[in-house]
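Subject: for your reference before the review

Hello V.,

The reviewers asked for a structural picture of the protein, and I figured it would be easier to keep everything in one thread rather than splitting it across files. Below is the amino acid sequence we used in the manuscript, unchanged from the supplementary table.
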Amino acid sequence: MKRIIIFLIIVYFITTCVIGCAPNLTKDKKADQEYDSSSVTDESGGNEETEASLVLYFPDKQNSKMITEVRNVKLVNNDDIYQAAVDELLKGPYDKEKFNNVFNSKIKLLNVKKYEDIVEVNLSKEFAKTADDNNNIEIIRTISIVNTLAELQNVKYVKILIEGEELKDLNDEPYGFLEKFDTDIEKVLKQEKANAKISKEEKVCFKKIILYFKDKYSEFVIPEIREIEIIDNSLEKAVINELIKGPQKQGLVRTIPEGTQLLDFNISKGTAVVTFSEEMSSNFNGGSANEEAVISSIANTLTELPHIKNVKINIKHKKKGNYGINTIGGHFLLDKPIERIESRIGKRINLYFAEQNAENLIPEYRAIEMGIKSVARRAIQELINGPKNEKLFPTIPEGTQLLSISIKDEICYVNFSNEIIDNHKGGSAGEAMTIYSIVNTLTQFDSIDKVQILVDDKARETLAGHIAIDQPIARNAKLIKEEEKR
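And here is what came back from the structure prediction:
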């Protein structure tokens, strides 16, 4: 009997110990929990909804200075933030006692386009000043829109269109690309009037223009803004000569072959006729995609000027003493004026891949179509596909699939298949490259401040045992070594 009692006591003790340990096991696995995605929809360009905070600029009651009003809005996808910002401005301020509403209900937003660090806003004709408006109302409206958009991440320039035509200054010249204004409205108005007094016959002036260069793989032409010196009002020639010089931005490639010279330029009834030296064809190197990129670069750059509708390209050959066969590389005849080619215009995204020793991330620029909605999804898919630069190394384990991606409250939830863990090669350096290639790639986009990495719908403790991923992760710029070499 004594033996039975002792045996029961031992069983009870063992059972108690096991049960007592169970909570610790659960605690150790707290990160491996299902992620509740019910409040966030997929970033597929269709139904995703996220919330963003906007800083709106309205004038005070005296129209003497700009002050801000913060407003939260819900978005369907990332790129809607630019349209939402203008839409909220047009609604006017909420605090009517503090702010003056300079936007009347007749003003309509026709469309908004974002490319590179530029936002283009197209408004109805009611935006322009009427006889019943205050003399300065148009400039104040302009300041309000430009400053509001310039508050957004990755926005430096704003171009305002009225029914598709560029907004004009007091000299009846297009404003072009506007940067953030001083909040002192009276100071801005004085500067505008001072600028209006500058004679149009001024021998030298500076103007911001937009140039188009190709990406490394000749898939798209990408816009680059540059301030150039214009002598004797020769704007068009100055633009072409800047195009000949090549790009300044990383990730872009020159389109006009080296050694090419501009021989002649004239405009007739909206058609720009531009004549290049024979190096345009003799120094050309590439196939049909590269040739099309050259043509698109020239046509799209010149048609950015409001008075140019299309472009006729000529090539003069010295030996023949005439224009010879009018083709750059033999794939396209240049016998007719070329219209603007919108389908060839793309935008750059940065993808971060590892260098050989896995100590740093190197950006590789990719060009994607301008109108794509699910840009975050596209970026991660390109990251999974790996680098095109042979000197860079992939960061996502082979076989990994993107299951879903969504954004809520400036946090991007990116959900991978189990292969991101199962096929990972391990090591703290390799794990850091994987995590921060994902995080740094996604945090380049507006509305994404941090990234929560999920695996098969679960938040895990780590990918390979070294770095915690159970909470949203912020950008790590220190791991980025340098810009990609052209």
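For the response letter, the relevant points are probably these. Confidence is low (pLDDT under 50) at residues 1-47. The chain is about 25% helix and 25% strand.

Happy to draft the paragraph if you're swamped.

O.
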